[in-house]
Amino acid sequence: MGSKTSTVSSVLCCPCRCLFCGVLSCLFSVLTCIFVVAGLVALVLYLLFRPHIIRVSAVSADLSDFTLTPQTWILRYNLSLGLQVRNPNKHIALHYHGVVAQAHYEGQQFGHTAPPDFFQDTGVTSPLDLAFAGESPIVGGIAAAGFRREAAEGAIFSVDVKISSHMKLKVWVLRVLGPKTKIDCPLRLQRRDAAHGQRPPEFKQTECRVTFF
């Protein structure tokens, strides 16, 4: 009976009695208390603010140039993309910083842009306009063959736009670091003939995938 009482006393001892209970058992008790309190605080904050994931939609696009030069396989591109970013949270405002957008074709990056940082209040939908223009080499015959195939099938190309951003959360007057955001927008874009004044074809709104890490 005395052995059991001594064991319980050693596990439940407070830091002030470490000299009597043992350093390791006291350290374990303190760490356990910290984890329990942190878990309770996180649960209370979650139940209080009910955070929701942001929603991102591609609402407009204009692919005025998307051509591949023969033999050299240089891709010339001019893409304008309009996104709508919605913050559905009622108590959490968001600050996006370090925003980077990349455009990919056949798994290869061909365009890059860095839009300015922006702040998004609670329940607000913000526009995010991206522009990619320039030239980039396409590596490998498979990618070039994929381009020729899509060019022959109505000049509708599969372009993937990926956006990453760091995020800060504003809760009342408090600002805390948030997760890194990754947005993936797989698009089907029809190239228009800008040289002949052709208007941009109708674009079907596309929902983007949002993940945090």
Features:
213 residues, single chain, 46% strand, 11 strands, 4 helices, four-stranded antiparallel β-sheet
Structural class: alpha+beta
- Beta-strand share of residues: over 45%
Which sheet architecture does the biggest sheet show? 7 strands, antiparallel
Distance between the termini: 51 Å
The counted number of beta strands is 11
Radius of gyration using CA atoms only: 27 Å
Main location: membrane
Pfam families: LEA_2 (PF03168)
Transmembrane segments: 28-49
Domain Late embryogenesis abundant protein LEA-2 subgroup: 83-137
Describe the secondary-structure layout.
Layout: H1 2-11, H2 18-21, H3 23-49, E1 55-68, E2 74-86, E3 93-105, E4 108-113, E5 118-120, E6 125-137, H4 141-152, E7 156-171, E8 174-177, E9 181-190, E10 206-207, E11 209-212
Antiparallel strand pairs: 1-2, 1-10, 2-6, 3-4, 3-5, 3-7, 7-8, 7-9, 9-11
Description:
- With 213 residues, the chain is α+β, with helices and mostly antiparallel strands.
- It has helices at residues 2-11, 18-21, 23-49, 141-152, and strands spanning 55-68, 74-86, 93-105, 108-113, 118-120, 125-137, 156-171, 174-177, 181-190, 206-207, 209-212.
- The strands form 2 sheets. Strands 3, 4, 5, 7, 8, 9 and 11 form a 7-stranded antiparallel sheet that branches. It has a 4-stranded antiparallel sheet with strand order 6-2-1-10, with no helix packed on it.
- It folds into 2 domains: 2-49, no CATH class; 55-212.
- Keywords: Membrane, Transmembrane, Transmembrane helix.
- It is found in: Membrane.
